[in-house]
Amino acid sequence: MLRLAQMFVPSRAVAEEVVQEAWLGVLKGLDRFEGRSSLKTWIFRIVSNVAKTRGERERRSVPFSALASEQASGSEPVVEPERFDASGAWSAPPAPWEDIPEEHLLSAEALAKITEAIDGLPEAQRTVIRLRDVEGFSSDDVRNVLEISETNQRVLLHRARSKVRRTLEQYVTGG
Question: Is the pTM of this model over 0.85?
Answer without folding.
Answer: no
